[in-house]
Automatic annotation (TrEMBL):
It holds the Pfam family Peptidase_M16_M. InterPro entries: Metalloenz_LuxS/M16 (IPR011249), Peptidase_M16 (IPR050626), Peptidase_M16_M (IPR032632). Residues 2-113 form the Peptidase M16 middle/third domain. Keywords: Metal-binding, Signal. SUPFAM superfamilies: LuxS/MPP-like metallohydrolase (SSF63411). It comes from Crypturellus soui. Residues 1-22 form the signal peptide. One of its GO terms (molecular function) is metal ion binding. PANTHER family: INSULIN-DEGRADING ENZYME-RELATED (PTHR43690:SF18), NARDILYSIN (PTHR43690). This is NRDC protein.
Length: 147
């Protein structure tokens, strides 16, 4: 599920690149991160326009769809990223350090092995459906905020 979350976030970021272009021009920033405990959405910028950007991201999460060719492309890109992490001793050492210290952390080696065994587009669809069924929101707002 950690690898599928990485793929989900990569495809979601790709799907958002065109619709969120206007937000980028307006100096609004967003970041999607596949965290250890789920999807992390970070938005920052002028407060009066952030709700529109957040709504756009949430709409893309709720109506998630993808092209199988994009799925294969993202899968190959992740293989390269995982492999590049494995061949850098300092990155591998840091990852193994976190695996030892954090209970339940998935190592890059395990992610790479799982990706090499093969994943299908159907498994991603099943994962996203299960992910959205258990979704909840937790938030932190900093700065000038009006309700």
């Amino acid at each position: 599920s950690v690898v599928l979350l990485d793929i989900f976030v990569s495809i979601l970021s790709l799907n958002l690149s065109e619709p969120a272009y206007g937000a980028d021009i307006a100096k609004l920033k967003y970041k999607l991160v596949a965290g250890e405990h789920g999807l992390i959405i970070r938005v920052k910028g002028f407060s009066h326009k952030l709700p529109l950007l957040l709504r756009l991201i949430i709409d893309h999460v709720s109506d998630f769809s993808f092209n199988p060719a994009v799925f294969e492309m993202i899968k190959e890109e992740l293989k390269k990223n995982y492999f590049n992490m494995l061949i850098k001793p300092e990155v591998l050492a840091k990852d193994l350090h976190h695996v030892i210290l954090e209970h339940g952390k998935c190592s890059v080696i395990d992610k790479y092995r799982r990706l090499m065994k093969g994943l299908s587009a159907d498994s991603l669809l099943s994962f996203v459906k299960a992910f959205k069924s258990q979704l909840f929101v937790e938030g932190l707002a900093q700065g000038n905020l009006t309700c």
